[in-house]
Every structure is written in C-alpha cells, then in structure tokens.
C-alpha cells in the first residue's frame, strides 16, 4: 500500500473527478478531499435549469451515488475550508482540525459568483447562483406572478430567465454591453438569443447598467438604471460573472493570472501542487492563448488529468473546448473558441431555430456553434479535432451531409 497522501481542495466537479480517478487508476494511499460545502461532489449545470425549475431533486446532481462515493474510501472533510498552504513543510492548514501533510496537492477550488458593488446589492431579495444552497434559496423566491430582474445577459442570467418564465414570473434582463453573451458568441448568436427571449416574453434592456437597488420597509425592490430609469421588481439575480478562488494559491506564492497558472500537465509553479477546473488558467492550443474555462467538460477532464499527473502519469490536457446551454426548448452548443479573425460560414438560416456557424482558420474548421444542431455539431467536432481541410461552399450546402466531409 502506498504511503503517499494526496490532498484535494474543493469537492466540486473537478475535485470529485480527481478523487475518483486516483482510485480508478489504482492509487491505494490516503486521499483527503476537503470541501467547504456540506455536499459530496456535484454537477452545477442543472442548478439553473431542472433543479431551479423544481423538476428534479438536487441530489440528482451528485457525481457518485452514495455507495460508490463511500467505496472510494476517501478521508472526506465536508464543511471545512483550506486556509493556508505551507509549501516548505508541505502542510495544508484548515478552518477546523489539524493541518494535513501532503505529498501532492490538487487545487480544485472553482470560483464564486460576482456581486456588483452597488448600493443595495446585499438586500434580502438579491441572489447569486453557484451552489445547491443558492439554487434552493433562489428557487423558493421564484414564485409565479413575481417580477424577476436579471442583472447580466450572460449564460447563467439567460438560463435563469428561461427557467423563471417557465415558472410564470415576469422577467427583465438588463445587460450593460450592447448585446447578449457578447464576450463568448458572435453577433448572430446574440441576436438569436435576443429573439428567443423576447418571443418568450422577457423584456431585454441592452446597454443598460444598474446603479443601485433600494427597498424601503414593506416596499418593493427598485432598481435604478444608468440612464435614471427605475424598475420595480420582487427578486434580483446577479449573473455578472465568476471570480476564481485562487487566494489560497496566491497567498502561497504560486503563479496566478486571474486564476492559478498551470501547464498542460495541470502543474502549478510548484511541481507538488496541481490545479484543475474553473480555477485553473492554462494555455489552450485550440485558442492559441491562455484561458480559464468555466465549463462542465473542462472541470471533468482537467480533474482527471490532474489526478493522473499527481500519480506520475504524463498527461497533456488539451481538450477541444466544449460548452452548452439549455434555454426553453433550445440546446446551444459551442465547440472550440470562435474569434473575430475567423472566416464565418453559415449552414442553414440564422433567422431559423436551427443552424450551424463554422469558424474557419484558412481551410480548417477552428470552431463551430449553433442552436438545436447536435447532430451536425457532432460531425463539426470531428472536423475540428481531425483538422480536416474543408471547402467552405460544401460546409454551407445543406444537401451535403457533414459526415461526407
Ligand atoms: C448554475 C450553473 C450552471 C452551469 N451550466 C453549465 C452548462 O450548462 N454547461 C457547461 O458546460 N457548464 C456549466 N456550468 C459551469 C460548470 O458547472 C463549472 O465549470 C464546474 O462546476 C466547475 O467545476 P469546479 O470543480 O472547477 O468548480 P466548482 O464546481 O465550483 O467546485 C469548487 C468547490 O471548491 C470549494 N472551495 C473553494 N475554496 C475552497 C477552500 N479554500 N476550501 C475548501 N473548499 C473550497 C467551493 O465551495 C466548491 O464547492 C454551470 C455553472 C453554474 C454555477
């Protein structure tokens, strides 16, 4: 039996996969899993969708069934925070209990939802959404007939808007930028999302910053926009991005850049410390730049890769980035990282409910995305991964099956 101790900080999706991989790859030493939530590892995507809608119980999000989790034989510490890394002594200090010695440390601390620093942002009717606890609190507030104000027209905000409409609330989305999901998708997709939400009765205000929230005793919440307009509402959700939980790493002197810097083996600037998931910043060869990916796929695959690297296996974490979002009856998927420098080829009609946009780098597909196009996107993914040379005209031609390319 190995006398090594591997400590994982953060029992979210990446941490859960790291722990499971250590065992499935045969590590029989001590695995300590530290998590500041009361739950065993779970997946977050349903929190803005089926869990928030009340269609499924939060327990359905757990990565492992309880027997399978127990069988991993972990030293699991729920409700405990890691507070300091002593790199010289290879010890991790905790909010409760003795410090723990580690041989390898895997940081899977994810991130926390940003709250705007405006007056009234901590009023009782104002929420963020990151955890099962957040989904329970927000879900209870989303009562039919109430008015929800979503601050931020990004993925979380739009998914919550769609779920709230399904639950019968009046919904307004205010977005400070000129279009929805501006940072991640091209203008055609922003327009598609705008049409989708407007058709479902959501009021969308673009280029509208929020200045303050206020509520007198027994009064409704009032939001004041940058142009002075006032919006009355009952519930507010901030969907304004994520802050990487990299303080532990920064205070320990590890290289950080809006997250913990890792190489393609998930190693930080200290070779005994690895990082994975939403907290990790790595050079994505597909995008030719460093990035921090907030996606289900990356959390799982990087958690697995970090565990393997901790066991001494050579890994090369370079998955083709994949992200999806479900809103109403629309499933939108993005493979790769589209950029304005790519040549755009559209397959189908961007004004319809289903189409694919390809992003070409010379004669190769670098990225593809689209709503309700899972089958075509499956083939698009292969074209990207295999770096197949393509003819743009054939890509655009609906009569030519992508499988033929
Ligand atoms: C509402 C919602 C919907 C989403 N929908 C989608 C989707 O549709 N598609 C998609 O691809 N992605 C989606 N995502 C993103 C995806 O869920 C995340 O990328 C993924 O959860 C990241 O996993 P992680 O393990 O890196 O971080 P997390 O899951 O955040 O886990 C980190 C854990 O570490 C804990 N922690 C932090 N610091 C410490 C500390 N010092 N000590 C102990 N514990 C600590 C945190 O509390 C947390 O439990 C969604 C995310 C959210 C919140």
Automatic annotation (TrEMBL):
Q: Does the keyword Oxidoreductase apply?
A: yes
Annotated ranges, domain Reductase C-terminal: 322-405
Q: Does the UniProt entry include the keyword Transmembrane? A: no
User: What EC number is given for this enzyme?
Assistant: 1.18.1.-
Q: Which cofactor does it need?
A: FAD
Task: Read off the Pfam families from this record.
Answer: Pyr_redox_2, Reductase_C
The alphabetized UniProt keywords are: FAD, Flavoprotein, Oxidoreductase
Q: Which residues form the FAD/NAD(P)-binding domain?
A: 5-303
| Single GO molecular function | oxidoreductase activity, acting on NAD(P)H
Identify the GO cellular component terms for this protein: cytoplasm
Q: Which PANTHER family match?
A: APOPTOSIS-INDUCING FACTOR 1 (PTHR43557), RIESKE DOMAIN-CONTAINING PROTEIN-RELATED (PTHR43557:SF2)
Q: What is this protein called?
A: Rhodocoxin reductase
Instruction: Please give the organism.
Output: Variovorax paradoxus
């Amino acid at each position: 039996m190995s006398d090594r101790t591997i400590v994982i900080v953060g029992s979210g999706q990446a941490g859960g996969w790291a722990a499971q991989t250590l065992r499935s790859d045969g590590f029989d030493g001590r695995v300590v899993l530290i998590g500041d939530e009361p739950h065993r590892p779970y997946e977050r995507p349903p929190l803005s969708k089926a869990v928030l809608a009340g269609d499924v119980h939060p327990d359905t999000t757990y990565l492992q069934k309880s027997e399978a989790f127990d069988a991993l034989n972990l030293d699991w510490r729920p409700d405990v925070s890691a507070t300091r890394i002593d790199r010289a002594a290879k010890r991790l200090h905790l909010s409760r209990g003795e410090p723990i010695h580690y041989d390898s440390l895997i940081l899977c601390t994810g991130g926390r939802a940003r709250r705007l620093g405006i007056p009234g942002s901590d009023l009782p009717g104002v929420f963020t959404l990151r955890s099962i606890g957040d989904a329970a609190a927000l879900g209870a507030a989303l009562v039919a007939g109430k008015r929800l104000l979503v601050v931020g027209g990004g993925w979380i905000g739009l998914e919550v808007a769609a779920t709230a409409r399904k639950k019968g609330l009046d919904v307004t989305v205010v977005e400070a930028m000129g279009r929805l999901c501006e940072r991640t998708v091209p203008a055609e997709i922003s327009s598609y999302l705008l049409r989708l939400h407007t058709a479902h009765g959501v009021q969308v205000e673009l280029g509208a910053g929020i200045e303050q929230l206020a509520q007198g005793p027994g009064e409704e919440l009032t939001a004041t926009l940058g142009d002075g307009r006032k919006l009355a509402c009952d519930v507010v959700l901030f969907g304004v991005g994520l802050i990487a939980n990299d303080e532990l790493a920064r205070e320990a002197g590890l290289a950080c850049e809006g997250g913990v810097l890792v190489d393609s083996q998930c190693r930080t600037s200290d070779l005994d410390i690895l990082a994975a998931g939403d907290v990790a910043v790595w050079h994505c060869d597909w995008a030719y730049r460093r990035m921090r990916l907030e996606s289900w796929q990356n959390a799982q695959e990087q958690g697995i890769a970090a565990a393997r690297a901790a066991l001494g296996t050579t890994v090369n974490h370079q998955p083709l980035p994949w992200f999806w979002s479900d809103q109403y009856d629309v499933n939108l998927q993005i493979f790769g990282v589209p950029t304005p420098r790519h040549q755009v080829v559209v397959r189908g009609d961007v004004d319809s409910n289903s189409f694919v946009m390809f992003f070409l780098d010379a004669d190769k597909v670098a990225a593809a995305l689209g709503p309700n196009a899972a089958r075509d996107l499956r083939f698009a993914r292969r074209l990207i991964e295999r770096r197949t040379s393509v003819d743009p005209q054939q890509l655009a031609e609906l009569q030519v099956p992508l499988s033929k390319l």
